[in-house]
Amino acid sequence: MQTLFVELGERRYPIFIGHTLDASSLLAPYIKAKQVMIVTNTTVAALYLEKYTLQFEQLGKSVATCILPDGEKYKDFGHLHLIFDALLQAGFNRDCTIVALGGGVIGDMAGYAAASFQRGVNFIQIPTTLLSQVDSSVGGKTGINHPLGKNMIGAFKQPEAVIADMAVLDTLPPRELSAGMAEVIKYALLCDAEFLLWLEQNMSKLMAGDADLLAQAVYRCCAHKARIVANDETEKGERALLNLGHTFGHAIESYLGYGTWLHGEAVATGMVMAAELSARQGWIDTVDVQRIQQIILAANLPIVSPAIPLEQFLNYMSHDKKVLDGQLRLILLKQLGKAVITNEFDQNALIAAIQAHQQAA
Amino acid sequence: MQTLFVELGERRYPIFIGHTLDASSLLAPYIKAKQVMIVTNTTVAALYLEKYTLQFEQLGKSVATCILPDGEKYKDFGHLHLIFDALLQAGFNRDCTIVALGGGVIGDMAGYAAASFQRGVNFIQIPTTLLSQVDSSVGGKTGINHPLGKNMIGAFKQPEAVIADMAVLDTLPPRELSAGMAEVIKYALLCDAEFLLWLEQNMSKLMAGDADLLAQAVYRCCAHKARIVANDETEKGERALLNLGHTFGHAIESYLGYGTWLHGEAVATGMVMAAELSARQGWIDTVDVQRIQQIILAANLPIVSPAIPLEQFLNYMSHDKKVLDGQLRLILLKQLGKAVITNEFDQNALIAAIQAHQQAA
């Protein structure tokens, strides 16, 4: 097992990364009072709820559960409210702990509930997908979707601790493994060219579920994210780089309806579009774009989106949280392993980059 | 005009207190970007929306508005969502500013919306009731009600600035002025015995709307609150003292349905119950309880609640945010001007204190 700390002063917290971890002993120091609410979804509950409930009960905790339907399309106000209902019906107080047992959607919703319930209670993350292990469970971004935009409502809420257990990836469907790999590739592209090489060498083993290699990849991604988040917790600057591919990706997800494509799939295609635009700006070569497409294809991820009317695509992009005073800003690549946030791109090049990676209408 | 700063490090902010203040020049340094959303209610909109819209437009801002129905019973998820709808329909971004123009309910909702929209945007408070000027607009507590408990969902969100203009109190209904006076009296009881004397001497002029005396009272209350909040922003300790009377009061409000009694009315009766329990613990004299009842009556506030079945009353109290590991904690008086938070009270004395200040069933 490896332990990585996210250095956020009084909100410093550990990420435990390994295989078949003992949540009970690892989390004991991080849960102060008796009440524990496990928030999970129907899919994960069937696999892991009993196991983790027992581990918390071993600690003498009084465990309640809130089981939500599985999927991004339930990341809304109505289902958030079910968590508050469960907390209040169980008589939970301000010293309770909310545990997110699931992927990014569960982490986002349980985290936002933890930020908001009684103006903030303790929060533990047990991510059960590769995507949430490398990305959404680190750094405290939580929230829900609004019909007019993804993640539009939420909070920065740091957990007390995160457990990233490779054992849970055994039951992860291949499509979800791929979606998580999109975020892994993202770290390589935005800040670690050496890691890109490592991924190119190891992608087939990673996709076959090699637990040691997966743990190495998770550690490396979490280390990058922890460093970036420690420098810029509330995304005034550098942290925005983690959104490489996301503004394009959000447009795809918004158009298709949340949950049609997985988040990681949309991000993968979004990264190709961002790379394409970067190349059209003359910052990277077309060879680099091809290399990016290849690693994304090797992870069984899409490099073209369905046909989306341009005006709608741009309109969805304009709802992005990185828009400042009416100006769209994008994360683009100055070279492989070096991303920047910028509003200095050619609008026609942006349009060409989008259209170059869409299916014909 | 007097300016008071709430000292919260990088979140330090000013409260401007005076008569007929120029919001435009006072707020200019605190609104960075162009988009301003004024959140208000139907009652306040009719009186002040045009005036403040003009003041923001003078600053070159692009002003949108969200007008909610007036009343505590609308402080819920559905109406919070209307603010998000308005923000997204107007295309507002992360650099926008949300202005709360109204009383405590508007401040709580607009503040929680500002905490949550895009994970946090700028926030300005223009409180239009005495209650919100002396209490709810200072210190960053925001939130909404849940059918199972008041203020159960929310966030700590500090504003960039607060404008407390006595001019708006001219249009305040007498019942609302009284409700605000309950919180003014609260500060005297919990930490300022000299102020209690001042209030006893000046209550009739205050209730007649003397603007100079009101400004003095608002300044004194805000100074107390600013000091307490600076010491304990997220209510780990001392800040809980500001809840004197509130646990009892919340039970009354919850039982009657939010909005039947005004919050200040419920707090007034709650303070009498807290004083009664303090006397039964032998900490203050029955003479002190009488003095508290007299100042509350002088502010035209109730000192007895309607009949509420005891079990329900205690059950509502048990949902309080100050409950820790199953233990109810109350703010009680060790002497006039000195409150403590404690779980050391006799359960029978608590019941007797409640029953002594209820109408016969």
UniProtKB/TrEMBL annotation, chains A, B:
Source superkingdom: Bacteria
Catalytic activity: 7-phospho-2-dehydro-3-deoxy-D-arabino-heptonate = 3-dehydroquinate + phosphate
InterPro entries reported for this sequence: Dehydroquinate_synthase, DHQ_synth_AroB, DHQ_synth_fam, DHQS/DOIS_N, DHQS_C
Annotated family: Belongs to the sugar phosphate cyclases superfamily. Dehydroquinate synthase family.
Keywords: Amino-acid biosynthesis, Aromatic amino acid biosynthesis, Cobalt, Cytoplasm, Lyase, Metal-binding, NAD, Nucleotide-binding, Zinc
Role this protein plays: Catalyzes the conversion of 3-deoxy-D-arabino-heptulosonate 7-phosphate (DAHP) to dehydroquinate (DHQ).
Name of the gene this protein is made from: aroB
Keyword NAD annotated: yes
Domain annotation 3-dehydroquinate synthase C-terminal: ranges: 180-323
Protein name from the UniProt record: 3-dehydroquinate synthase
Enzyme nomenclature, EC number: 4.2.3.4
Main location (coarse class): cytoplasm
Binding locations of NAD(+): 70-75, 104-108, 128-129, 141, 150
Keyword match Metal-binding: yes
Gene Ontology MF annotations: 3-dehydroquinate synthase activity; metal ion binding; nucleotide binding
Domain 3-dehydroquinate synthase N-terminal: start-end pairs: 66-178
Cofactor binding annotation: Binds 1 divalent metal cation per subunit. Can use either Co(2+) or Zn(2+).
Recorded metabolic or biological pathway in which this protein acts: Metabolic intermediate biosynthesis; chorismate biosynthesis; chorismate from D-erythrose 4-phosphate and phosphoenolpyruvate: step 2/7
Organism: Acinetobacter qingfengensis
A GO BP entry: aromatic amino acid family biosynthetic process
Coiled-coil intervals: none
Localization per record: Cytoplasm
Residues reported to bind Zn(2+): E183, H246, H263
GO cellular component, as recorded: cytoplasm
A Pfam family the protein falls into: DHQS_C
